[in-house]
Amino acid sequence: MMILVVGGSGSGKSSYAEKTAVSLAQSGMKKYYLATMQVFDDEGRKKVDRHRNLRNGKGFFTIEQPTRISGALEKMEDGDRTVLLECISNLTANEMFSEEQAVTEMQVTDNVIRDIKMLKDQTNHLIVVSNNVFEDGITYDDATTKYIQAMGKINQKLAALADRIVEVVAGIPVIFK
User: Fold this and answer.
1) 170: helix, coil or strand?
2) Which stretches of the chain drop beneath a pLDDT of 50?
3) Closest Cα to residue 35, out of 11, 12, 18?
4) Which end of the chain is more exposed for a tag (fewer CB within 10 A), N or C?
5) Can you tell me the distance from the alpha carbon of 104 to that of 95, in angstroms, rounded to the nearest whole number?
6) What is the gyration radius of the CA atoms in the chain, in angstroms?
7) Domain map (residue ranges) of the chain
8) How far apart are CA 4 and CA 130, in angstroms?
9) Does the domain at residues 2-175 carry the CATH identifier 3.40.50.300?
C-alpha cells in the first residue's frame, strides 16, 4: 500500500505520516525512515532534531538519503518493511540543484517517480510526505518556478500511484482517495 500525505508547512503531516507508518507496520516488520533533508544551518539542524524526537521510541531505522532515493533499498534488510519517505520537496530540490550539470524539471520528475516506483514495488507499505505547492500566489525567479512546477508534476504522479491520499490541514487529516 502506498499513501501520499500532503500539507503545508507546520500542518502536522509529519506526525500523521509517522502514526500511519507505525499503525501499518505489523509485528516483526521493519520500519524505515528515509530522510532527504540536507542540513546547511542551525534552522535545518533544529528541524532534523525535532523530527528525530518525534520518531524516538517508535522503532524506525533512519536512512539519510538526500538523492537517488531508491539507493536506500541497498541499506535495508530483506523481508517485510514499512517505509516512510520524508519529504519530496527536499528530495526534489536536492536532485534538481545539487548536480554540477543542470537538471531539467522533466528529468527530476522522471528520476524521482522512477525511484519511488522501485520503493513501492519492494516494500509492504510506503508512506510519502510532500508539500502543497502553487498556493501562495507569489511570482518567483525562473529556477524556483521550475522547481515548483517539478513538485507539482511529481505530486500529480504520486497521487496517481498512491492507494490513499491524505491532506493534513491544521493537524486534521482529510482523506481524498
Assistant:
1) coil
2) none
3) 18
4) C
5) 10
6) 15
7) 2-175
8) 7
9) yes
